[in-house]
Amino acid sequence: xSQLLQDxxxxxxxxxxxxxxxxxxxxLLIRKFRSEDLEDVHLFLSHPAAMAFSGLAPFSFGQSxxxxxxxxxxxxxKEPLGVFAIENRQTHRVIGYCGLENLPLEIADDIEVTIGLxxxxxxxxxxxxxxxxxxxxxxxxxxxxxxxxxVHAENLNAHHLFQNCGFxxxxxxxxxxVGQHSLYRVEIxxxxxxxx
Length: 196
Prior knowledge:
- By secondary structure, the chain is an alpha+beta fold.
- It has a single domain, classed as Gcn5-related N-acetyltransferase (GNAT) (Aminopeptidase, 3-Layer(aba) Sandwich), CATH 3.40.630.30.
- Helix content is 30%, strand content 30%.
- The strands form two sheets. A six-stranded antiparallel β-sheet has the order 1-2-3-4-5-6, sandwiched between helices.
- β8 and β9 form a beta hairpin.
C-alpha cells in the first residue's frame, strides 16, 4: 500500500494529482522532477535496454536535459496529470519515472499509466510498487474508474508487470513508428472490491 505523505483538498475528480507532492511506498518516493535530477534521468534515458521498446534511440545528455525540462514545465499545463520521478528512499537517487497521462484519442480515450526504470533496478519489485501506488492514488484521491497501459508486444516484463497489478489485456493495436502493442485496462473499482 502507498502512503500519501502530503496532500490537500481537491475539487473535481481529476484535480487530485495537482496536489501530488510526494507518495511514499516501502522503498520509493514518487514526486515531481527537479532540475538536480538530470544526471540520474540521463542514466535511464541513455541506456539502450531502458529505451528498447520506446521507439527512440538512447538520448544524448542534451536530449535528456530537454526531456526533463519539458516535463517540469508541463506540470502546470497538464495538471492533474504528469510524469513523475521515482526516487529510491534509501539512496535518494532517481531510478526512473512513472505517471498518468492522457492517451492520444486515436488509441483510446483513457488515462495511461507509464513507467520506466534504470535496468539495474529491474527485478526488485520496484515497478510493481510504483504502479500499485499510482492505482491507489488514482482510486483514493482521483476517484478514477479505469486506467490503462500500452505495452509493446515484445516487452514481456511489462506484460507480466501489468498483469500482476490487476490489468487485463483489452485489445491489440499498432502504434505508428513503434510497432505492435497490447492495450491493458484495469477497472479500479474491481481492485477495490477484491481487496475488501
